[in-house]
Design goal:
Layout (H helix, E strand, L loop, with lengths): L2 H12 L4 E5 L12 H11 L2 E5 L3 E2 L2 E2 L2 H9 L3 H8 L3 E8 L13 E5 L10 E9 L2 E10 L10 E6 L10 E11 L7 H20 L6
Parallel strand pairs: 1-2
Antiparallel strand pairs: 3-4, 5-6, 5-10, 6-9, 7-8, 7-10, 8-9
Bound molecules: flavin mononucleotide (FMN) and adenosine-5'-diphosphate.
The site of flavin mononucleotide has 22 residues, from strand 8, strand 9 and helix 5.
Family: Belongs to the RibF family.
GO molecular function, one term: FMN adenylyltransferase activity
Keywords: ATP-binding, FAD, Flavoprotein, FMN, Kinase, Multifunctional enzyme, Nucleotide-binding, Nucleotidyltransferase, Transferase
């Protein structure tokens, strides 16, 4: 879409925009042909004001969607959260899995991620805060293909601490804030179980030290 059509159709007619804040290097419209200066002239033409801001940074990292994507793909969730300005979240519905979880003492809710194109963090185990109905529970989430059980499709699953309800079909969301370890292929289910117990202990220790959602 040509830049001016985008401005006219979406910003002016649909959003009835009055004021736009725009990053110093923003480009938009077909093939990114329009610049901040073009935006300003459209503002004059269509009657809205445009404010240009310089690069913003947090803790030495320039805030950019590219940087956020990079951090997520490296499992750097705390860094990603710090430039997002909020905790990265995964929304989804709890669906049925292979019923192995409860057998090893760690029932894990399988989450069907709501947004099909959602950029997920690197495969691995993370500490999360799960929002279920009106309550919140800390948990340990695994993102990956569960190599211990052979090849499978990618799944997002979570074991919640101090929790024991049937939540199939429930819409929940997870706030993700701490990378714990890589997903690994264990020799046996027993070894996997021992490792998940260690993951659980790590989360409990963090909570008892008061670190919580940091
Ligand atoms: C905290 C946590 C860590 C996990 N880590 C691994 C892992 O390192 N390797 C692996 O193959 N599967 C891992 N899993 C996935 C389990 O294999 C999976 O939860 C189990 O197969 C239960 O699946 P189900 O919900 O379909 O019954 C992990 C699961 C959780 C909850
Ligand atoms: N602490 C818990 N954490 C996650 N899910 C739990 C927990 N306690 C009970 N559940 C329930 O058990 C299900 C997970 O058990 P699991 O044996 O792994 O079955 P499935 O393979 O169908 O996911 C969850 O979907 C949820 O309904």
């Amino acid at each position: 879409m040509e830049a001016e059509d985008f401005v006219n159709h979406y910003l002016v007619k649909k959003l009835k925009v009055r004021h736009v804040v725009i990053g110093y290097d923003h480009r938009f419209g077909k093939e990114g042909r329009a610049s901040v200066e073009d935006f300003m002239s459209f503002g004059k033409k269509y009657g809205f004001s445009v404010e240009k801001i310089d690069a913003q940074s947090v803790g030495g990292n320039i805030i950019s969607s590219t940087k956020i994507r990079e951090f997520l793909s490296e499992g750097k969730i705390s860094e990603s959260n710090s430039i997002l300005g909020y905790n990265y979240k995964i929304f989804g519905t709890v669906i049925k899995g292979d019923k192995i979880g409860r057998k090893i003492g760690f029932p894990t809710a399988n989450i069907e991620v709501k947004e099909k194109c959602k950029l997920l963090p690197k495969d691995g185990v993370y500490m999360v805060l799960g929002h279920i109905k009106r309550d919140a529970y800390y948990g340990i989430m695994n993102i990956g293909k569960r190599p211990t059980f052979g090849k499978g499709e990618k799944r997002v699953e979570c074991h919640f601490l101090d929790f024991g309800e049937d939540i199939y079909g429930e819409e929940i969301f997870l706030e993700v804030f701490k990378y714990i370890r890589e997903e690994r292929c264990f020799k046996s289910m027993e070894d996997l179980k021992l490792q998940i117990e260690k993951d659980r202990q790590e989360v409990l220790q963090r909570l008892s030290s008061g670190a919580g959602k940091k």
